[in-house]
Amino acid sequence: MRHGTRSRIRNLALGALLAAAPALIAGGCRGKTAESALDTTLAPFRALPAEQQEPALRRALADGTAPAAVLWYELGNLAYQDASAPDAPPAGPNSATGRNAPLDSALAYFQRASALDTLFVEPLVNAGLVWDDVAEGRDAIARNAVTAARECYKHAIRLRPDDEKARCNLGSLNFRRHQYAEAIEQFNAVLARNPRSALAHYNLAIMFAESKMYREAIREWEAAAESDGDGDIGERSRQNIKVIEDLMKSEVPAGLAEPSHS
């Protein structure tokens, strides 16, 4: 989904993980939750045609008709979407992310929202996701981005210990850095509070699938699909189950002798 605090998910394709901007097809997920006060504030802007949303947000900033931190947060969401466009403008000479101009803007807007409201969790999580995207590279900025992403997620968790997306994003970041115990700790912390968390079950399935623990992965994706039946995570979980089942049918167990033709 375009709006809201994003979570990182991946999709499996014939046994290979397609990394996206933590975690099997790329995208953020909101899940089916009751509308929050944040959603209510932003609903009039989100109802506008896409090309009218940014001008309306900037007019509201000038008029003071909505909290400035919320408006900068939503501008960050719009910029983050633009950063994934194939024709995104290149980064300038003072780029923070080293990727493209919209991604720099997204980060700056999320940081401004956080500065205006130090208890606002959502822009912290999304700033972490920007750094998480940058961390997928191999340059010096990418190496520093890992630390920056981790700090954003941890800060969000300190403010809201039960934040599902912050914990799952941190768990996914740890997993991709081969810090498996730390990753599982975050996913289990989510499930301890909400055993039906589709996002946590989904991420655990990723860990099992990459470890070739396919039955365990299927079990977790089934739990995710049950919890998010018509949602994005549910659909991706069903796709991944099909991929794993096909993979299990095609694999020859290691160590088996070749059939004799004598």
Question: Could you characterize the architecture of this molecule?
Answer:
With 262 residues, the chain is mainly α. It folds into two domains: 36-160, Alpha Horseshoe (Serine Threonine Protein Phosphatase 5, Tetratricopeptide repeat); 170-243, Tetratricopeptide repeat domain (Serine Threonine Protein Phosphatase 5, Tetratricopeptide repeat). 62% of the residues lie in helices and 2% in strands. It has helices spanning 37-46, 50-63, 68-83, 101-116, 121-134, 140-159, 164-176, 180-193, 198-210, 214-227, 232-250; strands spanning 11-13, 16-18. It has a two-stranded antiparallel sheet with strand order 1-2. The longest helix is centred in the middle third of the chain and has 20 residues, at 140-159.
Which features would summarize this protein structure in a list?
single chain, Serine Threonine Protein Phosphatase 5, Tetratricopeptide repeat, 11 helices, mainly alpha, 2% strand, 2 domains, 262 residues
Question: Whole-number average pLDDT?
Answer: 87
* Main sheet: strand order: 1-2
Strand content: under 5%
**Which segments are poorly predicted (pLDDT under 50) over 5 or more consecutive residues?**
13-33, 256-262
Spatial separation of the terminal alpha carbons = 59 Å
Q: Find the structural class using helix and strand composition.
A: mainly alpha
Series of secondary-structure elements, N-terminal to C-terminal: EEHHHHHHHHHHH
What top-tier CATH class of the largest domain fits best?
Mainly Alpha
What's the architecture of the largest domain, going by CATH? Answer: Alpha Horseshoe
Total number of β-strand segments?
A: 2
CATH topology of the largest domain: Serine Threonine Protein Phosphatase 5, Tetratricopeptide repeat
Indicate the overall shape: globular
Number of domains: 2
Please give the share of residues in helix.
55-70%
